[in-house]
Design goal:
Layout lengths: L3 E7 L2 E8 L9 H11 L1 H8 L10 E5 L8 E6 L9 H13 L9 E8 L2 E10 L2 E8 L4 E11 L3 E9 L3 E6 L12 H18 L13 E7 L10 E7 L3 E2 L5 H13 L8 E5 L5 E12 L2 E10 L21
Parallel strand pairs: 2-3, 4-5, 10-11, 12-14
Antiparallel strand pairs: 1-2, 3-4, 5-6, 6-7, 7-16, 8-9, 9-10, 11-12, 12-13, 14-15, 15-16
Length: 328
């Protein structure tokens, strides 16, 4: 067996794109394909994500045959625990990859790449100049605040306030200061422990639902923020801990979408206003609410998330994160 891949990163968060070696995936919906890969081909995920070829925080993308009309490509996301429903940093990388590899014919000044993900169809926009791909953004599926201003007694931490929001995946959102944590001063390990404790507690006690499909209704992780949710010209910092205590090096595209949905529902950001989001590694995404929508019974928003970097395993002048860093 030979598996071939292309490794990229978005804001420091890795993406291993599988380019060959997987068996054929049976036809069906994207969620049926996700279930098939999970139930029959999970050994390949472990080969690619786990050491010695990967690492604890590796992230992957398997391109499959699209099912939705209008989709240029379809993708299954994988990580240390299994298979997620949405991944914004992967969408950014795949938009660039699709143009670089001519999976989609480049058009200047902007090329649209429609990517079918388990959560739905995502539209990525790739800037193209002189035939080369540059900055990438994507427009989300409908995102919404599922449960706002909740409180729970968390062993070891006391009462903790949080929101649950959906941005292609469900996240708990909580101010890190409730846990005695501060960005720039507290250890990453302490953020991970706090976020994991909240995720585990909520998975056990708070049922979720999604109007489109039951397979979307699970808590993917917890995002701890600096609490700066009201609008400011300064970036708001967060760390996303997802799957099996995996740490996102980027601000998390689906997490930024979920945060925007929660902010809009609480009157903290209006349509068209851009906000900067900064990761634990210092990389930044900008995001804005572009319009309102609905998702079943939920008032929802459509968010656009932007990333203006470019990286593969080539160190470019403006890619400081590509020069290397360590979190743990």
């Amino acid at each position: 067996m030979t598996l071939t891949v292309v490794d990229m990163h978005t804001g420091g968060e890795p993406l291993r794109i599988v380019t060959g070696g997987y068996p054929d995936i049976p036809k069906g919906t994207i969620l049926e394909k996700r279930a098939y890969v999970r139930d029959h081909l999970d050994h390949l995920r472990k080969i690619l994500m786990f050491e010695p070829r990967g690492h604890y925080d590796m992230y992957g993308a398997l391109l499959v045959e699209p099912d939705l009309p209008g989709a240029d490509l379809a993708v299954l996301f994988m990580h240390n625990e299994g298979y997620s429903t949405m991944c914004g940093h992967a969408i950014v990388a795949l938009g660039r990859y699709a143009v670089d590899e001519r999976l989609v014919a480049p058009r200047e000044p902007m090329t649209t790449v429609n990517i079918e993900a388990p959560c739905g169809l995502i539209s990525a926009a790739v800037e193209v100049r002189d035939g080369k791909a540059g900055a990438v953004s994507f427009e989300s599926v409908p995102a919404f605040l599922f449960a706002g201003d909740q409180r729970i007694e968390l062993p070891g931490y006391g009462p903790v306030g949080f929101d649950i929001a959906y941005g292609g995946a469900f996240y708990a959102l909580a101010d890190c200061r409730q846990f005695g944590l501060e960005f720039g001063r507290s250890r990453v390990r302490d953020f991970v422990d706090a976020a994991t404790a909240l995720t585990d507690k909520l998975k056990a006690e708070l049922p979720l639902s999604h109007p489109d499909h039951a397979d979307l209704a699970f808590l993917y992780g917890t995002i701890l923020t600096d609490g700066q949710d009201t609008f400011s010209d300064m970036p708001t910092k967060n760390i996303c801990v997802f799957a099996e205590a995996e740490v996102d090096r980027s601000p998390t595209g689906s997490g930024v979408t979920a945060r925007l949905a929660a902010m809009h529902a609480k009157g903290q950001i209006e349509i068209g206003r851009t906000r900067l989001f900064e990761s634990i590694a210092g990389s930044r995404f900008s995001g804005a609410v572009v319009r309102t929508a609905t998702a079943g019974p939920h008032d929802a928003i459509i968010a656009r998330v932007y990333y203006s970097g470019r990286a593969e395993f080539i160190v470019e002048d403006d890619d400081e994160l590509g020069r290397g860093f360590l979190l743990r």
